[in-house]
Amino acid sequence: MRVTLPHDLGREEVRRRLNARSHEIGDMIPGGLAQVTSNWPTDDLMELTIYALGQTITGDIEIYETQVVIAFDLPPTLSFLRPMIEGAVRSNATRLLGKS
Questions:
Q1: In angstroms, rounded to a whole number, what is the distance separating the alpha carbons of residues 47 and 40?
Q2: Count of domains for the chain
Q3: Is the alpha carbon torsion for 92, 87, 37, 59 positive or negative?
Q4: What is the residue range of 18's domain?
Q5: Is the distance from CB of 75 to CB of 58 less than 8 angstroms?
Q6: Helix (H) or strand (E) run with residue 98 in it
């Protein structure tokens, strides 16, 4: 699953906002019981591991000058929820990148 969000913030500002708000990612998962770990293997790539609903979901956020690409590998047991998850990712990511 890939969600692309355009922005006009520049890479450094996106990176700053994601760093400042990365702790909020777990709160955005329905049910409120998600655990999220993240790391930055490069300046423009944040890797995520999400533990929720008895599943492990891996993904990443790639930062480009005018867009952010969020990609997740959904387990087969959650694939039927893809449209709902894509919508939630899109709206929550937009809030993560909002003014701070």
A1: 6
A2: 1
A3: negative
A4: 2-96
A5: no
A6: none
